[in-house]
Design brief:
By secondary structure, the chain is an all-alpha fold. It has one domain. The protein contains 20 helices and no strands. The protein is globular and about 60 Å long. The two termini are 21 Å apart. This is NADH-ubiquinone oxidoreductase chain 4. It is an enzyme of class 7 (translocase). It is found in: Mitochondrion membrane. Its main location: mitochondrion.
Length: 445
């Protein structure tokens, strides 16, 4: 693990070279493929170096981090062509990749907490530095204070655990704590990150104000930090979980249904995609809280699938925005008349978003449905509503933006570059081919 950290540290000077957009891009792909070849069936024993190591859960999250962050640079070429603080942008992304790598590969809870909080700073800089509306300051404050609100309680609960058992290494996390306050303090920061319904309002705000790279990292990785933390620590809280998880399953599922209804009323493309993320992560939250094997494996699959699919949708929204200079669905109409090839990509990503085969989303939803219905048959009602309205808002997004009469405003008739199609291809291919090797998703418990 140290070799990847050293490579990232030595990439710092590369970030400050003039006009080296593609060179940075290649380095990110190289480090991603180097990590890709580290796959093993006995993770915890093959990749330990100092306090860093990974099992399958953290391996997939790190792989997703490298992949999405390399595509973030690919999506932000307009920033480089205008030379808008591009060197600082590359350095910010590199810092973010480094912090996320340390977060996912840490085998110590306090080190995890430290980098978990540090990863917030580059995202904040991305939103405030490269967002394109004055409201980005407010969005940054929402993001910062929602997260910081639960940070101190989590740190106190970490210290409490250390005082009780004299270790913070995951390897020794088999002693269970039957203490409600510990459960709430430890999990609240993860529930905000996911985000759980009721504490989700920072997410649509942050997405709408963020540049495309900020939206991609928020949807692709930052939401997964919550699910990763819950899955990593749930085995210490099972005694409290069997009493309290009921409430979180209900909030996650009913919240997912309500947010699906909210999606049908959105006129802003990025806002609609952001709310759909809340609905998907509500199902993930419900499944983790059922504390069964199906739920954990399904949540892992769904997090990887959502990271690729949602990130791809934000790229599509940005491609339309760069031409029409608006995110409104009332003005983004009839685009199939101008860019039929791009309409195909809209269809592919919207169908993946509604969990159509052969996407990884379908496999994830099937596993989540198994988990939730085995927990309670009544979940069938809410799941059917979430699935139905998930299809409804995905089709609404596609049909409203691609069909209809084209709005005769100012439009750039530049019909898309190879870079943009490559960007969408690199999101969609892993999303639909990973399902062929889905048996590996069940190896980590």
């Amino acid at each position: 693990m140290m070799k990847f950290m050293l490579m990232m540290l030595f990439m710092i000077p590369v970030s400050f070279l003039s006009r080296r957009f593609w060179l940075n891009q290649y380095f990110y792909f190289i480090i991603m493929f180097m990590f890709f070849f580290q796959f093993s069936f006995s993770f915890m024993y093959n990749h330990i170096s100092y306090i860093w190591g990974c099992d399958l859960l953290s391996y997939l999250m790190i792989l997703l981090t490298f992949w999405v962050c390399s595509l973030m640079i690919l999506a932000s070429e307009s920033l480089f062509s205008n030379n808008y603080y591009s060197k600082m942008f590359l350095f910010t992304i590199l810092a973010l990749v480094f912090f996320l790598f340390c977060t996912f590969s840490s085998m110590n809870l306090f080190v995890f907490y430290l980098f978990f909080e540090m990863s917030l700073i580059p995202v904040l800089i991305l939103i405030i530095g490269w967002g394109y509306q004055p409201e980005r300051i407010q969005a940054g404050v929402y993001l910062l204070f929602y997260t910081l609100f639960a940070s101190l309680p989590m740190m106190i609960s970490i210290f409490y655990y250390y005082e009780m058992y004299y270790t913070l290494d995951y390897f020794y996390f088999y002693k269970m704590i039957d203490y409600v306050l510990f459960y709430i303090f430890m999990n609240m920061v993860f529930l905000i990150k996911m985000p759980m319904y009721f504490i989700h309002l920072w997410l649509p705000k942050a997405h709408v104000e963020a540049p495309v790279s900020g939206s991609m990292i928020l949807a692709g990785i930052m939401l997964k930090l919550g699910g990763y933390g819950l899955m990593r620590l749930m085995n210490t809280m099972i005694l409290v979980g069997v009493k309290l998880n009921f409430y979180f399953v209900i909030i996650g599922m009913v919240g997912g249904f309500l947010v699906s209804l909210i999606c049908l009323r959105q006129s802003d493309i990025k806002s609609l995609i952001a709310y759909s993320s809340v609905a998907h992560m509500g199902m993930v939250l419900g499944s983790i809280m059922t504390i069964n094997y199906w739920g954990f494996c399904g949540s892992l699959v769904m997090m990887v699938a959502h990271g690729l699919c949602s990130s791809g949708l934000f790229c599509l929204a940005n491609i339309s925005y760069e031409r029409l200079m608006t995110r409104s669905l009332f003005l983004n109409k009839g685009l199939i008349n101008l860019m039929p090839t791009l309409s195909l990509w809209w269809f592919l990503f919207c169908s993946s978003n509604m969990a159509a085969p052969p996407s990884l989303n379908l496999l994830g939803e099937i596993m989540l449905i198994n988990s939730l219905i085995s927990w309670s048959g009544l979940m069938m009602l809410v799941i059917s509503m979430i699935s139905f309205f998930g299809a409804a808002y995905s089709l609404y997004l596609y049909s409203y933006s691609q069909h209809g009469m084209f709005y005769s405003g100012s439009y750039s008739y530049f019909l898309g570059s190879i870079r943009e199609y490559l960007l969408l291809f690199l999101h969609w291919i892993p999303l639909n081919l990973l399902v062929l090797k889905s048996e590996f998703m069940t190896l980590w418990l």
